[in-house]
Specification:
With 423 residues, the chain is mainly alpha-helical. It contains 15 helices and 7 strands. The strands form 2 sheets. It has a 4-stranded antiparallel β-sheet. α7 runs antiparallel to α11 (307-324) and α10 (251-263) crosses α13 (345-355). The protein is flat. This is Integral membrane protein.
Length: 423
């Protein structure tokens, strides 16, 4: 009797033992609500501090849903004329990606079994997240909403971002089981370890280019008139807080714009206006503190020094590639450096697309860097500086004998052997 009572009344097979489908669905809903709370807390706080007679709690909730969709890269419309709003606040996007990736990482540790049993839990979490997205789109479909949704495009944007972030979390949680595909190149051009070296050089380039954009942005803050515009526009504690939060959410966008400035291609500030180190042409712009950082209309001058930051980022990639290239030949080093330059293009296209967009029809329909120019400039800088820099770094390390690879050591050993036999 004791043995019978010690057994569980209901036993489940090992393949089915785990969280229920409802629990996984609620986990996806909870993840979406957590990302929503990042926006809801400041928005409702501003609504409480500065209530207006024609704003209700439902209007504030619609604004939260609209900003949440915008953070996923979803295009929205504003005002009675349906003015397009496609500038993505990248800080909200980064927070969303981090939370979704962590959720995918947690689900990876709970997956059991094979086939459908293994993927049922992550897919259910994904469905729960999209359920909240459908509610957000429905709430913003009202013509009275400040930011109106476009159902198909918005759901597609949320689905793509959620799938990418959850997929990354699953991949990292499962220990990165899938190996990177090997390029169809002969070993004489693509040696072992080239993919890892390319990834390190690309990561170093992106981090250094972000730091370069931060340096350019810091100089613009010191020399610009953002503080004067903030003093003129701020009205009360709620106005100051709202302006501060808006500027903070767009700081990553400003970093991308500054990086594009350092690369030399610059960025658009409305139709027919352009800001770049080679020359700036500006027209009327909205009163906003970040736009007060733009330089005045001028021709090329000392602002060309901003390109030194992009050169430093390219040199960083060259040093990383050259350090790993001590085991390779010159042709292999050139192939890896070229692959790094080409690999920088796709992420630059995506980031350039998300960092810019439109805020209104007409003049404000073009903001931010042109994506293809932003991507092409990164590839050009890497080919112009990182490629010869990596070859020079490899030659210097080989000349000093630091980190000499098997090929170099074999040649030196053969030379010494021949000398001893000749003696």
């Amino acid at each position: 009797m004791t043995q019978l009572m010690g057994r569980p009344i209901l036993g489940l097979p090992s393949d089915l033992d785990g969280r229920s489908t409802l629990s996984d669905l609620l986990a996806g809903v909870r993840t979406a609500l957590l990302t929503l709370s990042v926006i809801a807390v400041p928005v409702f706080g501003l609504w409480v501090l500065a209530p207006y007679g024609d704003d209700t709690a439902q209007d504030a909730a619609r604004a939260v849903f609209g900003l949440w969709l915008l953070g996923h890269g979803a295009p929205l419309a504003r005002g009675p004329g349906a003015a397009p709003v496609t500038v993505v606040p990248l800080l909200l996007t980064a927070v969303t990606v981090v939370l979704l990736s962590r959720a995918g990482h947690r689900q990876a540790r709970r997956t059991r079994g094979r086939g459908w049993i293994r993927w049922r839990s992550p897919l259910t979490v994904y469905a729960g997240y999209l359920l909240v997205a459908a509610v957000a789109v429905a709430q913003c479909a009202d013509p009275q909403a400040m930011l109106r949704s476009r159902a198909v495009a918005d759901l597609a944007a949320v689905a793509l971002l959620a799938a990418a972030a959850l997929g990354h979390g699953l991949w990292s949680g499962l220990g990165r089981p899938a190996r990177l595909p090997r390029l169809p190149l002969p070993p004489a051009l693509w040696p072992d370890g080239a993919a890892a070296a390319t990834g390190r050089a690309l990561a170093g380039w992106l981090l250094a280019l972000t730091a370069a954009g931060g340096a350019v942005l810091a100089v613009a803050v010191l020399l610009g008139s953002a503080g004067q515009q903030a003093q003129r526009l701020g009205g009360g504690a709620a106005g100051w807080l709202g302006m501060l939060l808006a500027c903070l959410s767009l700081v990553p966008n400003a970093l991308v714009w500054s990086a594009s400035y350092a690369l030399g291609v610059g960025f658009a500030v409305g139709t027919g206006s352009h800001a770049g180190p080679l020359g700036t042409r500006l027209g009327p712009a909205p009163d906003f503190p970040l736009l007060g950082l733009l330089p005045a209309d001028r021709g090329p001058d000392w602002h060309l020094l901003a390109c030194a930051a992009a050169a430093a980022a390219a040199i960083t990639a060259a040093l990383l590639t050259g350090r790993a290239a001590t085991r390779w030949t010159a042709a292999q080093t050139a192939a890896v450096a070229t692959a790094t330059a080409l690999a920088a293009g796709p992420p630059a296209l995506l980031v350039g697309h998300l960092a810019g967009g439109a805020l209104a029809p007409g003049r404000m329909s073009e903001l931010g860097p042109v994506p293809w120019q932003f991507a092409l400039a990164q590839t050009a800088w890497l080919l112009a500086l990182a490629l010869p820099g990596a070859l020079l770094r490899r030659w210097w390390l080989g000349r000093r004998g630091d980190g000499a690879g098997p090929v170099l050591r074999a040649r030196v050993g053969a030379y010494r052997l021949v000398c001893r036999l000749a003696a």
